[in-house]
Design the sequence.
């Protein structure tokens, strides 16, 4: 039986921190940090290969078994709701998914009295579920970037977006109103791989758990 593992990791800060974490349990993927256009990295001596993919694509590669394991933000998992095993919070990449609105609106606004609102976001699925759970009718406008611009040009009254320090909101005259979820980076596993390569995957999960606990 082929016991080779494939790991999908997005580029950027998650890649760097993931490689540092894996190194602590003896999995060395440092060559992924080299300035390269490569998307597949082979590590035959570790019986391993790694893929660099877009963060939003990690759950898809793992769900379909093209990768056995993946590293991805909880925001992506909440939005896509894929059928994956999510054994570990890796406890880095912390931020908050927030509802935010212009400062002037917030001065007299009461979220408890919202009935119909218009919201711009990269996370339409999460936003729709959240407002529905509060009994609020929300018109969701999907954007792919610069979400803060929505209220500034009258596209929406409010936004749902990730907030780390809050500096971008402040610079654009917006304030946080409600927290939808706290977001960190997660390890996800293909459900079939967990059965067919159980011992090896379990060893990785247990090793990482000891490091981050």
Sequence:
């Amino acid at each position: 039986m082929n016991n080779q593992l494939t790991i999908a990791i997005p580029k950027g800060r998650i890649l760097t921190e993931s490689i540092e974490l894996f190194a602590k349990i003896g999995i060395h993927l440092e060559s992924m940090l080299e300035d390269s256009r490569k998307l597949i990295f082979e590590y035959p001596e570790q019986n391993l290969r790694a893929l660099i993919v877009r963060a939003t694509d990690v759950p898809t590669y793992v769900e379909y078994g093209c990768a056995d394991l993946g590293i991805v933000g909880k925001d992506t998992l909440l939005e896509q709701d894929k059928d994956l095993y999510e054994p570990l919070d890796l406890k880095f990449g912390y931020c908050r998914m927030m509802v935010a609105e212009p400062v002037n609106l917030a001065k007299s606004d009461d979220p408890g009295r919202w009935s119909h609102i218009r919201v711009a976001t990269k996370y339409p699925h999460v936003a729709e579920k959240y407002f529905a759970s509060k009994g609020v009718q929300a018109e969701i406008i999907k954007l792919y970037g610069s979400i803060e611009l929505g209220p500034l040009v009258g596209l929406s009254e409010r936004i749902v977006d990730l907030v780390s320090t809050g500096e971008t909101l402040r610079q654009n005259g917006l304030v946080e109103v409600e927290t939808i979820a706290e977001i960190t980076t997660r390890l996800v596993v293909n459900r079939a791989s967990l059965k067919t390569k159980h011992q090896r995957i379990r060893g990785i999960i247990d090793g990482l758990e000891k490091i981050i606990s």
In short: The longest helix spans residues 198-212.
